[in-house]
Amino acid sequence: MRAEDTGRAQGRDDRPRACPSTPCRSGASVLGVTTGVGRLAYLPMPVFVDSAFEARLEASGRPESRYRFTGPCVEGECAQWTGARCGVIDHVLDDPPGPERAGAAGTALPGPFLPSCSIRADCRWFAQRGAAACAACPSIVTDVGGSATYRSTRP
Ligand code: SF4
CA neighbours within 13 Å on the CB side: how many for 89? Predict the structure, then answer.
């Protein structure tokens, strides 16, 4: 077990979790907006995405490249699920930097302050990797055109 692998240590893995990098769709919520320097600006509270909002976001193209969305972690129904955990945050923290972490150098070590984030109590990534996940989280872009963090089918 990893030192920061907090979920199992605290017995919290059985309850539903929130995905911090879910696709844009009606019923999801906007977690944050990717800024021009590639860092996520977290919203104070997630903003619900209804079908009209989804259509507007889709019309502008690849919303997951510009926003991060949150919704229920669907575990085995997600291509990123490894059988017992989310493979995205493990990949980001454990594997060599890839394009989904472009510009993220130096952000993986947790500092004294975690991002101000409204879903921490339920977050899948935080449950798995604790503060290390939050240290990397602001630099993660869901859709960088097909990567280990997103099975993009978009052009
Ligand atoms: S900042 Fe931490 S708790 Fe919030 S979405 Fe990112 S990993 Fe989850």
Answer: 27
